[in-house]
Design a protein that fits this description.
Helix content is 19%, strand content 34%. By secondary structure, it is of the alpha+beta class. It starts with a strand and ends with a strand.
Length: 172
């Protein structure tokens, strides 16, 4: 089965996260970060921390490699990994980058891609090969034909670089 994923809107509208007033987050969107802040950091990141939920409700966090493409994060791995087994039961996921200063946090769902269509496979292969060449990781466009690929589509994204002044939230 071939799976094609349609991209999310290119520029989701920016807003502010809901926090208590004494945190000092501005009420207006003036000074909010542009969506390009998220795109650049997600595309450049080498490691992504993902948090899934175990069947008994306990959280599970693990760093993974991935590819940011069309406002979605693609991660791969054996269906036997804890994260894959968690996602098979509950697709809820949180993703964040390693920096606590240049923050990007995604909240969304992860779903198996199945066999990606050839165009998507080629695009993902190019990203993974370029990003992880240092580790001699070179998956071909058909690397995921037997599964092992998940797409994480965020529904909410938070980011900041000068908290609280530029704390920004996007709803996709």
């Amino acid at each position: 089965m071939s799976t094609s994923i349609s991209p999310a809107p290119a520029q989701p509208p920016a807003g502010r996260p809901y926090l208590p007033a004494d945190y000092g987050v501005p009420a207006s969107a003036e000074g909010a970060l542009p969506w390009s802040f998220v795109e650049e950091r997600m595309a450049a990141a080498r490691n992504y921390w993902i948090v899934t939920v175990r069947p008994d409700g306990r959280p599970h966090a693990v760093p993974v490699w991935g590819a940011w493409l069309d406002n979605a994060l693609y991660i791969e791995g054996s269906p036997q990994t804890r994260r894959s087994r968690n996602l098979a039961v509950n697709p809820a996921v949180v993703v964040h980058l390693e920096s606590g200063d240049q923050v990007v946090i995604l909240e969304g769902e992860a779903h198996p891609v199945g066999r990606p269509d050839p165009a998507l496979g080629a695009r993902l292969s190019a990203i993974f090969c370029a990003k992880y060449a240092w580790a001699n990781y070179q998956p071909g466009p058909d690397a995921w034909d037997q599964g092992g690929l998940h797409v994480i589509r965020p529904h909410t994204v938070f980011a900041w670089s000068k908290f609280p002044a530029d704390a920004t939230r996007w709803r996709l």
